[in-house]
């Protein structure tokens, strides 16, 4: 009997695992050590791994198989349409530069190169990002949420509602949204009258929607009547049920990676004025979203109106800059004009993770000044006696690391905002909530002119 069992001992149960072992291993799939067998990413869904010997059977019954097959038949699915392009000269460029690769790149710098990079970051931030405004807006239209006067039983976390309200407040401040729409909604006015008093906007596309509560506030407070939620994952406790209870509101959830979404092929969105929003779009998801809304990657021979013509406004709260990739970044030309190379970009994105190193209550303001151990003249050795960049990084004060991280975030987001402006929209980059609410507090907000 013992030979047919996995030989992994369960100390809490004082017995062997009762699962059958995987031949020729003595252990089951749960307890087989990865050193004894080869695990490879599933070709259907690389987020999980499978034993190489089981791959043929797994691909026929992978839980993601039916969803992937169904998605491939959707007209709006176009693999990699918003992904950006590699450098033409670098044929073997990897799709993703990992955090480990970025760290190794930084540690491989000489002391002088590291000092020069910090000086460059400081100079660019001083010249390009010094006028970034603090714009914490909580509009009157969101009172129904701020005072928790919600008819439906919805999750309420004040820090998230404050962020969502300020995103909408900045759109209202820019003239994209109108409070009069909320008043008309309370009076149950007709849809046509509602639209005319909300700058013609009747639809919202929320990218990286998650549970969809940013859109929930939009629908409750501004009378949005057509909702598209773009999210590649499945979530519990979604706002979908409460959204569908709103009279005359239609909801469509697009379970797709933003990288593969051809927004122009979403039939039900054509010809409808819409608003594009996203809260905490991690890393390259911000770039993919901006390119999805403003890029020119669509079928020139389709004879249909490009969806960009109906875009009325954008509000994207950025997040997780350490995940950003050179391939996806929307404004590489801007960085290169500033003397930032691809390797510099990877280093800058790695530095951004330091923005959350320090206490964001009272110790570090959003305008924290970088007082780096690496002076502009490159004379690092005389200051620290350091032998390598790793020594400098290890000895940097948390406040200095955090300030450097914030500077790098600002530079990345400023390039994105300027790209949106180059696309013809009135745009700005603001800090939309205090750091003690969220250190990820940069917002790109834009209005179609």
* Uncertain parts: 181-197, 299-304, 365-379
What's the shape?
A: globular
- The separation of the N and C termini measures 76 Å
Q: How many helices?
A: 16
CATH fold annotation of the largest domain: Rossmann fold
Classified in CATH, the superfamily of the largest domain is: Vaccinia Virus protein VP39
Helical/strand content category: alpha/beta
What's the structural domain tally?
A: 2
Protein traits:
alpha/beta; globular; 449 residues; two-stranded antiparallel sheet; Rossmann fold; 8-stranded mixed beta sheet; 13% strand
Task: Report what the structure shows.
This protein is an alpha/beta fold and 449 residues long. The protein has helices at 55-61, 65-72, 99-107, 111-128, 143-146, 158-174, 180-186, 191-196, 213-222, 240-244, 285-294, 332-337, 342-351, 380-384, 389-395, 398-422, and strands spanning 9-10, 15-16, 39-41, 49-51, 133-134, 203-207, 226-230, 250-254, 274-282, 311-319, 425-431, 442-448. The strands form 3 sheets. The chain has an 8-stranded mixed sheet, with helices on both faces. Strand 7 (226-230), helix 10 and strand 8 form a beta-alpha-beta unit. Helix 3 (99-107) crosses helix 13 and helix 6 crosses helix 9 (213-222). The chain is globular, with a radius of gyration of 25 Å.
List the helices and strands and how they pair.
Layout: E1 9-10, E2 15-16, E3 39-41, E4 49-51, H1 55-61, H2 65-72, H3 99-107, H4 111-128, E5 133-134, H5 143-146, H6 158-174, H7 180-186, H8 191-196, E6 203-207, H9 213-222, E7 226-230, H10 240-244, E8 250-254, E9 274-282, H11 285-294, E10 311-319, H12 332-337, H13 342-351, H14 380-384, H15 389-395, H16 398-422, E11 425-431, E12 442-448
């Amino acid at each position: 009997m013992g030979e047919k069992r996995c030989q992994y001992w369960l100390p809490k149960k004082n017995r062997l695992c009762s699962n059958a072992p995987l031949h020729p291993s003595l252990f089951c799939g749960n307890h087989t050590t990865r050193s004894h067998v080869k695990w490879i990413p599933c070709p259907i869904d690389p987020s999980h791994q499978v034993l190489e010997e089981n791959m043929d059977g797994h691909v026929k019954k992978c839980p993601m198989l039916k969803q992937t097959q169904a998605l491939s038949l959707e007209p709006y699915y176009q693999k990699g349409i918003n992904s950006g392009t590699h450098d033409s000269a670098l044929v073997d460029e990897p799709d993703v530069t990992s955090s480990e690769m970025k760290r190794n790149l930084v540690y491989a710098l000489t002391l002088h190169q590291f000092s020069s990079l910090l000086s460059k970051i400081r100079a660019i931030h001083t010249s390009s990002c010094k006028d970034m405004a603090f714009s914490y807006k909580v509009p009157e239209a969101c009172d129904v949420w701020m005072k928790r006067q919600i008819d439906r039983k919805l999750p309420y976390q004040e820090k998230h509602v404050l962020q969502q309200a300020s995103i909408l407040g900045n759109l209202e401040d820019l003239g994209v949204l109108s409070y009069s729409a909320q008043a008309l909604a309370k009076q149950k006015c007709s849809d046509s009258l509602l639209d005319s008093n909300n700058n013609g906007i009747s639809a919202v596309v929320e990218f990286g929607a998650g549970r969809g509560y940013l859109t929930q506030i939009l629908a409750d407070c501004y009378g949005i009547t057509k909702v598209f939620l773009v999210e590649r994952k499945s979530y519990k406790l979604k706002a979908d049920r409460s959204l569908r209870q709103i009279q005359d509101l239609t909801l469509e959830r697009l379970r797709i990676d933003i990288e593969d979404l051809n927004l122009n092929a979403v039939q039900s969105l054509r010809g409808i004025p819409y608003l594009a929003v996203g809260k905490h779009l991690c890393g390259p998801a911000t770039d993919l979203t901006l390119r999805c809304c403003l890029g020119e990657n669509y079928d020139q021979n389709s004879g249909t109106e490009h969806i960009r013509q109906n875009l009325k406004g954008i509000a994207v709260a950025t997040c997780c800059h350490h995940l950003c990739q050179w391939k996806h970044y929307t404004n590489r030309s801007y960085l290169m004009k500033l003397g930032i190379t691809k390797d510099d970009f990877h280093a800058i994105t790695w530095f951004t993770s330091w923005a959350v190193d320090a206490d964001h209550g009272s110790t570090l303001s959003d305008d924290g000044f970088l007082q780096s151990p690496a002076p502009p003249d490159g004379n690092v050795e005389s200051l620290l006696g350091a032998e390598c960049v790793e020594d400098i990084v290890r000895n940097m004060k948390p406040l200095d690391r955090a300030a450097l991280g914030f500077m790098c975030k600002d530079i990345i987001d400023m390039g994105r905002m300027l790209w949106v402006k180059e696309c013809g929209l009135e745009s700005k980059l603001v800090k939309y909530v205090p750091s003690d609410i969220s250190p990820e507090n940069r917002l790109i907000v834009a209005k179609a002119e």
